Automatic annotation (TrEMBL):
Entry annotated with the keyword Zinc: yes
Segments forming a coiled coil: none
One of the GO BP terms on file: proteolysis
Domain Peptidase M1 membrane alanine aminopeptidase: 227-439
Cofactor: Zn(2+)
GO molecular function: alanyl aminopeptidase activity; metallopeptidase activity; zinc ion binding
Xref: Pfam families: DUF3458, DUF3458_C, Peptidase_M1, Peptidase_M1_N
Gene giving rise to this polypeptide: pepN
Domain Aminopeptidase N-like N-terminal: 89-188
Protein name: Aminopeptidase N
Domain Peptidase M1 alanyl aminopeptidase C-terminal span(s) in chain numbering: 553-876
Keywords for the protein's UniProt record, in alphabetical order: Aminopeptidase, Hydrolase, Metal-binding, Metalloprotease, Protease, Zinc
Enzyme class at the top of the EC tree: hydrolase
Reaction equations catalysed: Release of an N-terminal amino acid, Xaa-|-Yaa- from a peptide, amide or arylamide. Xaa is preferably Ala, but may be most amino acids including Pro (slow action). When a terminal hydrophobic residue is followed by a prolyl residue, the two may be released as an intact Xaa-Pro dipeptide
């Protein structure tokens, strides 16, 4: 079944109030649902049946206004309940009882058990696995929830909103009532019950509401919640000043569970998290983990306004809450950390995940127009490109008008289920600007290509800038319209300062931004005394691929002197990628890699430049990943050649600067107490990057082994282990360190995931044997999404040479495991399967075996809708 955006129509029935009673039991949970139903004004009275969504449900009883519904007056299946004989009155009460087995729910949608804890995941369509309902986001209801459970095994019982009555029941059971005064869609419903430890804190909002904050974790893990709690309080305060948004309930609870399909979920007042994004301390979490926790805690909290108070009319509008909330969490992290470093990390992620999606068979608009399975649209395009589109709105309107637009959006749509049109209209009305051409960013898939060429005439003191845009065809969209692309830029003078101009024509240029609105523009900047270098798409103001026809010398100059830090990184990165691509082509052609001295020297200078913050230097010196190089090559990919080119460049940089890098490693080694702050993390990052370069140019594993042994925190320990595995495969030191890590963390699955991950990422065809063996490791479990992502996800997405083995064995292993996962957890199987989305850009031999693997999957029996959708679109 295909769902289409244009088919939306409001429901004939509303559910103003929902009362749920849960009699919890692992095998036999009873859910008693009492709904206040109301016929919508305009719906034809008595004529329209009430059709409720279900998914695999077992109905025990159904009553209307207290009377059982006769067999003839209803049609029941596990996936639907239709009631044809309804009361004449506009309102009535529908009561249903359903029976569930949470312990046997392996899809991790609806109500399930994770490590002995009952928990729920209802977005997007999981509520219908709990009870029959109008399970669509435009049905807003006020929920009252009563939970009953065994007191001893399940002392804690949580739901949305504020806590109400609690008490004892016969047979050692007890109950708790929760009431959420804010009408919400069913996907935001949540319940958690079990034996959990907690930490509490408190925050007074700016209008004086005192909010009790709770984080619930497995017993013994309380000490790992401090960073998450701190991040939560900083998020709450930040949203008050940055967006004027205040919290609205008396409690805010976060629960960490160990089996979770994604990162976290913003259920009203009761966020549920993958424990990976809550638990952290210096011994078990890396700096990257700390940064992710901060970002995801913020993300889910920010959803309270962008997602919960204002929700989505239908799932086509998903970016309305996700793109916007990602934008908000990006801004939060930028304010808490280094803005330039954060921006570069965002761009790397966007190019690494969203660009391949947008440029391959799974491409779709930020607001899709059709889907078969909505769970397959929680994508980098909806989230990350969606965030970039919001960022562009701010670039187009300016900071003040953007904030006024946001204020207007909140004012107009609070308590509603809104659309992307509503959102953009708020900005148009607040600013008086026409955003109709801009709206194409929501409607057209594909990464726009922008080409630019600058010509300077000293005689005329004029710079002519020719810019063209084109959007490539994507599945189902062959002809594209011309977009409104805001390109931030600077004209960099010989002294590195930005130059001004007297007059410009050919396009609107405002506040350092060129607004492309036509297929091609010819801009003339007049009154420019010296030849400037062009720094274009500063801060990555638009998510486009950019090719500027320019001299290598100009790029080298910008990498050293652009006043915009992002611009410097971009120039350096382009130089590195170009070199690596040429190197890979040479190697595939049987020649030597290219290792330009000027670029090697430049890298040394940037790493050693004390005027730049360490985190920035570390990012700049992290060579583009093999997948990045592959993406930029675009076609005829040979991962072995790419790996060889990359390894040789790393070795050249490492040996050219070995002495300086050793000194820097010393200088960046702190001895004081650990702190997860961005500054300290940056020093660790730089230290570990130079360690990797040093290892790349030496056969001696001893230094890395020493760093592993002496590491005082997980960041350094994991980095040293990765260096050993990647640069000194097979060395005795490497084997010993791997064994030590396994021994030390055997009882800590989250930490052991790093051990799986590092081994799965080890380059080379032999890694497949390692990965096959690790599937049988006692700590691995195919039922746990974190384990799967650490081992299989890392292998398929971060190991180009292992996964894309020329003999196709990598794909065969992958296909088998995906099919196995699909029988339990279709959502995770489908997500993993997207690793094959770029198969068409491989060289012919690999392309053929990849296709075979996809065909084998698609013809397997009993494929889930989720997996079938991904595989069929990938093949199409
Ligand atoms: N709304 C959640 C978040 O972004 C993610 C939910 C993902 N749901 C899904 N079915 N994939 O914070
Ligand atoms: Zn979200």
């Amino acid at each position: 079944q295909v769902f289409k955006l244009e088919d939306y129509s409001p429901s004939d029935y509303l559910i103003p109030a929902t009362h749920l009673t849960f009699r919890l039991d692992p095998e036999q949970t009873l859910v008693i649902t009492e709904l206040a139903i109301e016929r919508r004004d305009g719906a034809r009275r008595g004529k329209t049946p009430l059709v409720l969504d279900g998914d695999g449900l077992d109905l025990v009883s159904v009553e209307i206004d207290g009377k059982p519904v006769a067999e003839d007056d209803r049609t029941v299946s596990p996936d639907r309940l239709s009631l044809h004989a309804l009361p004449a009155a506009r309102t009535f009460t529908l009561t249903m009882t359903t029976r569930l087995a949470p312990a046997r729910n392996e899809a991790l949608m609806g109500l399930y058990r994770s490590n002995g804890v009952y928990c729920t995941q209802c977005e997007a369509e999981g509520f219908r696995r709990i009870t029959y309902f109008l399970d669509r986001p435009d049905i807003l209801s006020v929920y009252t929830v009563r939970i009953e459970a065994d007191r001893r095994s399940t002392p804690l019982m949580l739901s949305n909103g504020n806590p109400g009555e609690t008490g004892a029941l016969p047979d050692g059971r007890h109950f708790a009532v929760w009431h959420d005064p804010f009408p919400k869609p069913s996907y935001l419903f949540a319940l958690v019950a079990g034996d959990l430890a907690f930490v509490k804190d408190q925050l007074v909002t700016r209008s004086g509401r005192s909010v009790e904050l709770g984080i619930y974790v497995e017993h013994g893990k309380q000490d790992r919640t401090a960073y998450a709690m701190d991040a939560l309080k900083r998020s709450m305060i930040w949203d008050e000043t940055a967006f004027g948004r205040e919290y609205d309930l008396d409690v805010f609870n976060i629960v960490a569970v160990s089996d979770f399909n994604m990162g976290a979920m913003e259920n009203k007042g009761l966020n549920i998290f993958n424990d990976k994004y809550v638990l952290a301390d210096e011994d078990t979490a890396t700096d990257a983990d700390f940064a992710n926790i901060e970002a995801i805690i913020a993300h889910e909290y920010f959803h309270n306004w962008t997602g919960n108070r204002i929700t989505c009319r239908d799932w086509f509008q998903l970016c309305l809450k996700e793109g916007l909330t990602v934008y908000r969490d990006h801004e939060f992290s930028a304010d808490q950390r280094s803005r330039a470093v954060k921006r570069i990390a965002e761009v790397r992620l966007l190019k690494g995940h969203q660009f391949p999606e947008d440029q391959g068979p799974l491409a779709h608009p930020v607001r899709p127009r059709r889907y078969r399975e909505i769970n397959n649209f929680y994508t980098a395009t909806v989230y990350e490109k969606g965030s970039e589109v919001v960022r562009m709105i701010r670039t187009v309107l300016g900071a003040d008008a953007f904030r006024q637009g946001m204020d207007l959006y909140f004012e107009r749509h609070d308590g509603e289920a809104a659309t992307v049109e509503d959102f953009v209209k708020a900005f148009e009305d607040a600013s008086g600007q026409d955003l109709s051409q801009f709206f194409l960013w929501y409607q057209q898939a594909g990464t726009p290509n922008v080409t630019a060429k600058a010509t300077y005439s000293a005689a005329d003191k004029e710079l002519v800038l020719e810019i063209e845009q084109s959007v490539p065809p994507t599945p189902g969209e062959s002809r594209k319209r011309v977009m409104h692309i805001p390109l931030a830029f600077g004209l960099v003078g010989p002294d590195g300062e930005d130059m001004g101009w007297d007059h410009v024509e050919g396009a609107t240029v405002r506040n350092g931004v060129i607004h492309l609105r036509k297929r091609s523009h010819r801009l003339r900047f007049q009154g420019i005394g010296k030849r400037p270098r062009l720094s274009l798409n500063r801060g990555f103001s638009a998510p486009v691929t950019l090719s500027v026809e320019e001299k290598r010398a100009d790029r080298l100059f910008l990498a050293r002197h652009d006043g915009d830090l992002y611009g410097r990184w971009q120039a350096l990165n382009t130089l590195l990628i170009d070199t690596l691509i040429r190197g890979a082509r040479h190697i595939r052609g049987g020649r030597d890699a290219v290792l330009p001295d000027d670029l090697v020297a430049l890298c040394g200078d940037i790493v050693g430049d004390d005027a730049l913050e360490p985190a920035y230097r570390a990012l700049a010196l992290t060579l583009p990943a093999e997948a990045d190089i592959a993406r930029e090559m675009g076609s005829n990919i040979d991962p072995d050649a790419i790996l060889a080119a990359r390894t040789r460049l790393a070795r050249a940089i490492g040996s050219a600067h070995a002495a300086a890098f050793k000194a820097l490693h010393e200088a960046m080694s702190d001895t004081g107490p650990f702190s997860p702050d961005a500054e300290s993390a940056g020093r660790r990052a730089l230290k570990n990057v130079v360690l990797d370069y040093l290892a790349a140019q030496s056969d001696d594993a001893a230094p890395a082994a020493r760093h592993y042994a002496e590491a005082g925190n997980m960041t350094d320990r994991a980095a040293a282990l990765a260096v050993l595995v990647n640069r000194h495969a097979g060395a005795a030191e490497t084997t010993e360190a791997l064994a030590d890590f396994e021994r030390t963390y055997r009882d800590d699955p989250l930490v052991l995931d790093k051990w799986f991950q590092i081994q799965a990422a080890a380059p080379g065809p032999e890694t497949l044997d390692t990965v096959r063996a690790l599937v049988d490791h006692p700590a691995f479990s195919i039922a746990n999404p974190n384990r799967l992502r650490a081992l299989v996800g890392t292998f398929s997405s971060a190991n180009q040479t292992g996964f894309h083995r020329a003999d196709g064995e990598g794909y065969r292993f992958f296909g088998d495991i995906i099919l196995k996962v699909d029988r339990k957890n279709p959502q995770v199987a489908a997500r993993l399967a997207t690793a094959l989305r770029s198969w068409r850009s491989l060289e012919p031999e690999r392309r053929a075996v990849a296709r075979e693997a996809l065909l084998r999957m698609v013809s397997a029996e009993g494929l889930s809708v989720d997996l079938r959708d991904i595989v069929e679109r990938t093949l199409a």
